[in-house]
Design brief:
mainly alpha; single chain; 160 residues; 67% helix; globular
């Protein structure tokens, strides 16, 4: 991977958005496990996890506004996102029966596929499959890929 100083603006934006997506998944997981609200978690990430390039390993360079739009968007639209993700699951399976990390990936990626049409569906799917692969070595990434592919075909048929 190119270093930040050798990236063109498009590569830099993609890298910062990639980090924002991963952080959004982590934030949703943290909200669910810790019972925290979106505002508190967004503030925590902005104050304690995000930083400029070169600030040290404990800080992450990310598109903070994109991160916030994802986390806030999932919370704002959860009553629509969760049933849409449930509809992609096999009979007798519900989102709440899945691993919390899988649930967070499905919620953020589902939100992005359904409501962030400014981002191509293939980009969204690829990004969240990469995130799933970072967390899981089993069948979860394939399951998430299949769910997002179906979601994207339903929500954005013009892209396929």
């Amino acid at each position: 991977m190119a270093t930040a100083s050798k990236e063109n603006p498009s590569e830099s934006r993609a890298r910062l958005r990639r980090a924002a997506r991963l952080c959004a998944v982590q934030a949703l997981y943290q909200m669910e496990i810790g019972g925290l609200g979106a505002t508190a978690v967004i503030r925590e990430f902005r104050d304690h996890r995000f930083g400029a390039e070169g600030e040290g390993a404990e800080f992450v360079a990310a598109d903070e506004d994109f991160f916030e739009s994802l986390v806030a968007g999932v919370v704002e639209r959860q009553a629509e996102v969760d049933p849409a993700m449930d509809a992609l699951l096999a009979d007798n399976w519900r989102l709440e029966r899945l691993d919390a990390t899988v649930r967070a990936i499905l919620r953020v990626g589902g939100f992005e596929l359904l409501y962030r049409k400014d981002v191509p569906a293939r980009v969204v799917i690829d990004e969240y499959i990469d995130i799933a692969n970072a967390f899981f070595e089993g069948s979860e990434p394939k399951f998430i890929n299949a769910a997002f592919d179906r979601c994207a075909r339903d929500a954005r048929p013009d892209e396929f």
